[in-house]
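New to this. Help decode both lines:
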Amino acid sequence: MEDKKAAIRQEVWRRLASSPGVIPPFPGQGRAAERLRALPEYKEATTIMVPPDKAQQQVRVNALMDGKRLIAASPGLRQGFFLLSRNFLRPKDWARACRSSGLSRFGRPLPLEELGRVDLMATGAVAVGLNGGRVGKGSGYFDLEYMILRELGAVKESTPVVALVDDLQVFDEVPMEDKDVAVDVIITPTRTIRIRERPRRPEGIPWDRLPERVIRRVKPLWQLFRKGSHL
């Protein structure tokens, strides 16, 4: 299955003339971000979580503009999660704060016990399928972020997950494994697609599948491990 995912990644990076190994930015990402703002689930959300990929920069800025409580994971989850809010950020700093390089400078470290409920997760992808599948860049960090939130009770099975991608990144179907986080909605610059029957998502952290080096390197995992969440 990983070979099939790798082939899809290479195809998308070729289609978008993107550097390999990244969640690719795309020309209409600003329009996709605006379409997200029209989504009822977004309008109703108080807290949203968005990964720090460049392709989702406008999503994060919009969240601040719209008064959302914005949570973003640090690159590689090495420093855990950060909170961004217009309550303590000046408008002139929003764009810089929403870059991955600005999280630790402008954001506030968010202890796991203060995460609270996450009402919506918005993410990029290398590819998505009409079956609800999502193919990331291969690092697995978005799936891990979801698992951590699920372990903490910050998200549940019904929490909406939205993928924002280019039309060229949408496939009829992409491979899915039980560790993969399926999406409810796909938003492109031209379409909003609701998945009719998506697969169920991971219910927590699969401790028995995680190497110790990964647990030690990812701050939230290490904190949970030391508290005995793996027992």
